[in-house]
Design goal:
Chain A is of the alpha+beta class. Helix content of chain A is about 20%, strand content about 30%. Chain A is globular and about 35 Å long. Classes of the chains: A alpha+beta, B alpha/beta. The interface between A and B is medium-sized, with 14 and 22 residues. Strand 1 of chain A pairs parallel with strand 9 of chain B.
Chain lengths: ~90, ~290
């Protein structure tokens, strides 16, 4: 399942997509520790898989919180993407 | 000072009991209770068939709203909560339903409910709820493949339409039909914010626009807003709409034009999809437990 967490408002679309099929295979969930903003949480989803999602209280603030991983110049991958061994995390912006 | 009560945002509260079902003969009775931010629904199923449902406005207290809606659904029968073998809570207030055996997200419940309501060919679902909007893609079993939810602002939600009904002084349930009574489709108003859309609409009314033309501009804005969310997850046919806004023909028609796909015609009340999905999940979970 592709779970899109985030929002769309007048300033654009800001979504973090987590492929829960890939995420469920990962036992250690290193993204939880890697994220400097601590926006992720581990939970059991509706289909009984242990997956990572963006904590509800952070979903409408990811644009600001994730800014520290997104330099204005030069290309860089956010810490969560670098840490994920299954390439399960994508950012839309 | 005389306070005038404004009822333009009111929508019809519903209750239905299937006279063809004798619940006392059923082996498995399950219920889904969807406590949303604006409306609450309860669906009771007997052996996988809908026995009763009810839909009304949510109050300020989620546990109380859940209790009121399930009791209203059971009203007129001798059924009590103890007769229901498995109860699933869903929606915005799902974690605050004291009698629920399990809480399941409204995304999974809407997909399951739409799969039952519209049949197994449904692949894309748009749920336009009271204070959020969800785009869902599912497989032939009603399992979610991809979802996206936007609840940052009221644009593209039922609450936005309620605000608009109050502004225009037109009953909410008339807006869709009347918005289609225009000779030429106007440019949509702001689709990014209800407050901006409201002030833009006020300016248009002052500029002499007819009510129908302003309604058309707002319905078009709402359709554009949700279409962009749907495009993000990719629209695949068959396409279905759930939630209260699915009853607004003005938004549905414009959305179909933007996406280039026709939405399936609902056989049941579109507002009960989440609760219906909850009751169906309840049946599967109970059967799994009994195996």
């Amino acid at each position: 399942m592709l779970a899109n967490y985030g929002f769309k408002d007048g300033s654009g679309e800001f979504f973090i997509t987590i492929d829960t099929g890939k995420c469920a295979k990962c036992m250690k969930k290193p993204c939880l520790k890697a994220c400097p903003g601590k926006i992720f949480e581990k939970f059991i989803d509706d289909y009984d898989d242990e997956v990572v999602g963006v904590t509800e209280s952070f979903r409408n603030r990811i644009k600001e919180i994730c800014a520290s991983c997104k330099p204005v110049t030069g290309k860089s991958y956010p810490a969560c993407q670098k840490a994920c061994p299954y390439d399960a995390i994508q950012h839309s912006w | 000072m005389d306070k005038k009560v404004n009822n333009f945002r009111r929508w019809k509260e519903l209750k239905w009991i299937n006279p063809a079902i004798d619940w006392e003969k059923a082996n498995i009775i399950t219920a889904g209770v969807d406590v949303g931010s604006v409306s609450s629904q309860a669906v009771i199923m007997c052996d996988g068939e809908i026995y009763a449902y009810a839909s009304r406005r949510t109050g300020s207290n989620s546990p109380e709203s859940a209790r009121r809606i399930i009791e209203w659904a059971m009203e007129g029968t001798v059924m009590s909560l103890d007769n229901i073998h498995y109860k699933v809570g869903t929606g915005y207030g799902r974690v605050n339903i004291p009698f629920a055996d399990r809480a399941i997200t409204e995304i999974a419940c809407h997909a399951r409910g739409a799969h039952y309501m519209y049949g197994p060919t449904v692949r894309s679902i748009l749920d336009m709820g009271g204070q959020d909007c969800k785009a869902i893609r599912c497989d032939e079993n009603g399992k979610v493949l991809s979802f996206l939810m936007n609840d940052k602002c009221a644009a593209g939600t039922g609450r936005g339409m309620e605000v608009f009904a109050e502004l225009l002084g037109v009953p909410l349930e008339e807006i869709g039909e009347r918005s289609l009574q225009v000779e030429e489709e106007p440019e949509p108003v702001s689709s990014t914010c209800v407050v901006f859309a409201k002030s833009e609409a006020t300016s248009l009314l002052r500029a002499g626009w007819k009510l129908e033309k302003v309604m058309a501009a707002y319905c078009a804005a709402m359709a554009h807003r949700v279409a962009s969310l749907l495009k993000r997850i990719g629209v695949q046919e068959d396409f279905a709409i759930t939630g209260g806004i699915a009853k607004n023909i003005g938004v549905v028609k414009r959305l179909e034009d933007i996406l280039g796909v026709k939405a399936l015609k609902p056989k049941l009340d579109t507002q009960i999809a989440g609760a219906l999905g909850g009751a169906l999940f309840g049946k599967s979970l109970l059967e799994k437990r009994l195996k």
